Amino acid sequence: MTTFPADFVWGTATASYQIEGAVAEDGRRPSTWDTFARTPGKVWNGDTGDVACDHYHRFAEDVAIMADLGVDAYRFSVAWPRVVPEGTGAVNQAGLDFYRRVAETCLEHGVQPYVTLYHWDLPQPLEDAGGWLSRSTAEAFAEYARITHEALGDVIGSWITLNEPWCSALLGYAAGVHAPGQQLGTRSLEAAHHLLLGHGLAVQAMRADGGEAPLGITLNLHAVRAASDSEADLEAARRYDGLGNRLFLDPLLRGAYPEDVLADTGTTEWFAERSDDLATIAEPIDFIGINYYSAHTVAAPEDGRFSDPSLPTPTPGSERVVTVDTGAEKTQMGWEIHPDGLVDVLAQVHALAPGLPLYVTENGSAWPDEVGPDGRVEDEDRRRYLEAHLEACREAVARGLPLKGYFCWSLLDNFEWAFGYDRRFGIVRVDYETQQRTVKRSGEFYRDFVARERG
Ligand code: GBH
């Protein structure tokens, strides 16, 4: 059996708005997610991130739990509205101090801090000025990245500019199920472009600031399979892969947008006018992070089964694609479980950028787990999902893919965006009444797996 390299990084991941709470403390100002969560009907049960896991006050306990689990690294995100509360302008030192405390506590426990600069909490004033539809947001992001890099460069092991720009652009500006909740169809691709430009400008700004820490970006990649070899189904798969993966991978790694996707969405001209940005977007990076949850089998709809192109869709230009239920087991999110899809997406990126180090920066699953009478959480479903995907990572390494690390999503149960607290992804249970943490069976499994692999 292949063993993981000795320097393979084992980690856990979280994101600021999902865990911190303390949304009005020490100078933090509202983000688009504060606004969205307060808008009736947007988040299940009216949940907000106001308190969440109270990590802002309990981070030391949470880092200690990671140390007990024996992980090497912690991927957390910095909240832009803590550091530059209005999006541009005045810097809030208290915000930077908080993340320094988190990072230093990690280092004291031998846990390497990996920072994501943007995990969806855009300062509200920037949204009011056009959000990611506006080019100036990209420039503001680069300035915030420079400030944060300058302040924390000595304690951060790796920097990730954006988390999942596909979600920010398509779920935020097309499907409208994430903040800012807009349904603008193909204009969401303009948001995608400004996110990618913001990434490139941020990489340039951080490079100019100096330092050795590797710089990268995290994408949520969709493993895509055609339901059959028919031309129509292969075409559906091309469209789904185009919007879900290549729209982001190609400009970042090849310096060019996929022409078929622009043609499908009628955006060729808009993008042509901005072709000068591609050199910035393709600024060389040191690694790419991949968030992987599921594989998607797609087909062309039969007559009469076209989705209505006027309805909001996360995949504008792919209205003529249906997702097929393969009968595979699903998690509580309804996402099919396909561990081999993880190997597929890693191979897809590797083919595009041979030699570029790869990290799985998120992977995990939601299940309706419960605390048993003995106080234990026997989350066998989550444990099995985790084990199967860790074995997929082993397979990727065995095939020679340059996979350097794995971060389990998530350390803690947390605010699961539009689903509020109703979905639990943690390997550590959070009781939202008492804020008590309980390591689940899956967490113990991860601890033992990592210990065994280290030898
Ligand atoms: C991640 O996004 C986020 O980074 C993280 O904050 C979040 O808590 C975590 O996942 C769990 O959701 O086509 O209906 O099968 C995940 C992005 C995008 C993954 C949609 C699943 C397919 C849904 N997700 N995707 S579906």
From TrEMBL:
Alphabetical GO CC annotations of the entry are: cytosol
Class of this enzyme: hydrolase
The record's section on SUPFAM superfamilies has: (Trans)glycosidases
Which PANTHER family does its entry note?
GLYCOSYL HYDROLASE, LP05116P
Q: Which organism is it from?
A: Auraticoccus monumenti
Give the InterPro entries listed for this entry: GH, GH_1_N_CS, Glyco_hydro_1, Glyco_hydro_1_beta-glucosidase
Question: Catalytic residues?
Answer: E164, E362
Q: What family does the database annotate?
A: Belongs to the glycosyl hydrolase 1 family.
- What lineage does the source organism belong to? Bacteria, Bacillati, Actinomycetota, Actinomycetes, Propionibacteriales
**Alphabetized PROSITE patterns for the sequence:** GLYCOSYL_HYDROL_F1_2
The record's catalysed reaction(s) read: Hydrolysis of terminal, non-reducing beta-D-glucosyl residues with release of beta-D-glucose
Keywords assigned: Carbohydrate metabolism, Cellulose degradation, Glycosidase, Hydrolase, Polysaccharide degradation
Q: Which residues bind substrate?
A: Q18, H119, N163, Y293, W409, E416, W417
Q: Identify a single GO molecular function assigned to this protein.
A: beta-glucosidase activity
Q: What is this protein called?
A: Beta-glucosidase
Instruction: State the EC number(s).
Output: 3.2.1.21
User: Quick one: a GO biological-process term for this protein?
Assistant: cellulose catabolic process
